[in-house]
Amino acid sequence: MYRRWEIDPHVRCRRLDDQLLAYHSGSGDTHLLTPFSDAILTALAVGPGEEAARSLAEIRADPGVARFGAGDREIADALWMLEEAGIVRVLEAA
Amino acid sequence: MSVVADLPPAELRDRLRGPGIDLVTGRFRTRIVSGLPEVTTGIAQLYRDFPVDGPTGFADFHVAVARPRGLRRWYRPQVLFRFDGRSVFKPLPGNQAFPMLEWGLNWCLTTQVHHYLVFHAAVVANGERALVMPGPPGSGKSTLCAALVTQGWRLLSDEMALLDLESGLIHGLARPVSLKNESIPALQALAPDAFVSAPCHDTLKGTVAHLRPPIDSVERVRTPVRPGWIVFPRFVPQAATELLARSRDTAFFGLVSNAFNYSALGDIAFERTVDLVAQSDCHDFSYIHLAEAVARLGELAGAGTRPVD
Amino acid sequence: MLATLWDLLQAQGHAGAPPEPVRYQLWGAWLLARRRTTAILWELRCLAAELPVIEGGRPVLLKGVAYIVRDLPGARSRLCGDIDLLVPRAEIDRVERMLYWSGWSRGELDPYDEQYYRQWMHQVPPLQHRRRRSTLDLHHNILPETVRQPPEPARLIERAEPIPGDPVFATPTPAHMVIHSAAHLFADSEWDKAVRDFYDLDRLLRHFGEQHGDAFWDELLTEAQAMACGRQVYYALRCCSRWFATPVPVTVLARLRRFAPAAPIRAVLERLFGLATRAHAAGPSPRRTAASRALLFVRSHWIKMPPLMLMRHLFHKAFLSPREESP
Lengths: 94, 309, 327
Description:
The complex is a heterotrimer. By secondary structure, chain B is an alpha+beta fold.
């Protein structure tokens, strides 16, 4: 089971000073992200032509995330909460 | 177009009672019908410098302030506010007819307007920059607004900040500023020459009066202003006057929680509110004396804004 | 209907035509409608995960939601209210119970209103999601059970068409959409939305007439008969063709005539419908139109409730209910 995550297409993000805000256009919820979630989202942000989704390992390896020194479980927990809020979505492939 | 002051009192009264008048407040045109002397007086005194017309052409709002049909027309007479012919609030005692008009006009802005993002905030301007003061009733924003306006700031609104969804600029209507209870004598002490209407007692909000908008503010009302400062006021009797920096993210949520149509407008509301906050210097402000408060905010305006990322 | 107007002006290239203040009002309304549509579609996704599997067919989306989901012309600028969902009567209690565990519960009603809803209306009182604050109208019939000839909901559910790509919901067939709209308009009490409802009917008739031609009209006639809604469909098509010049084939109108009441009643009722709809749009009502609206309101309630119950219900609403009365 191979899981990858990407930012939900309903979400638009803006930065205010050093804080990241995310607006979900489906639910209408506006979220303020913790620095850790911010780093994870930044790791998931794709440039043009890039592969859309990232695996846990790829997220952990991202420099912005790595500096928190977090392990797989912490990252997975954060991803789960972001998923609940509708900010990221998970793609699973066998 | 003539202004209210140009109309002989009898003509104003007759037009209000009959076909009504179109009162122009900023970019909004309100058709008002009322046979009540309190309303005629209120309009004559407080909207003295506002353009008046018609009634002719398209009006954004159609309102009436009148006695109810039936018993309460005569016995302990009451007053109703009607929008498009329908009563919107519970009736109030007859002497509160003018405050009722003002509350009704505020209601129109908070419920009928969706081409602006509408915040529950006072807005004044220094030069071409806005000072936006969000806050629920009781936060003291109207009182502060009144004070600033009597000391040279331009009035945009004491209750409703209108954010243009296309330009990101801030609009106001420059309507009379409402004062309650102790703020009435406090304002009169600060600005003895300012015109304040006769107080109305025993309303739901206590004793209520209105400050006439400065003629300069009324004449410049159609010019919107750029973001400048967002200040969250609190009247705190025991504390000293204090202006503290507030992080932009908390200012953002403070604004959104004082917005009337943020949820209803969706994405565009999110984007424009972020823009507004990003371009503003944000503060919390506790104060006790009006004169000190005005001075402190004057310093803030003089100091300019922090550079934006 | 302001958003609809904006849409129409845009589509026909006349966006710049109205004066600025008018344009802004229309645009503002369109912004609201756009947000509402997105929110409803999202809400459907959440709801799909919260509904239990139902025996006897898929749950059927009704009215505005159905129009949006089927992308019917003008649906997205329609300012849809709540989600209306039809399930078999036998399932409604179970569905409500399951929804409770997903966060749905009834709002606060005084005990009389609640009894009225449960016993006589065709739905449970509106449900609200405790966290999302969205509302859901759960129905087990098209019109309340107290109506003398209640239409057959089972038929609508059986023939409902699953939505492509959606594992949960279905929408009524074109004929059933029209029938539901017509039945709702003439037998329900909310005349305030009359203009919008007639406009919806006109759009539905034009769209389906164009898309499916005779097959649609034939089905409409068959189903109107089968669901005992002939009279409402008759009124609907007559009024639409008269006021909106809806292209209803003459033969269809002729075949519907047999559902009409006796001629004098028909003339009176049609004049009342006309007065009530037009008067509301014009603004403050002259006494005659207020009376005609009051008469229709009584008629709507009469259709829904036997006369004795009606007096008690009206009396209660006027005096005991905590709601505001406007003079």
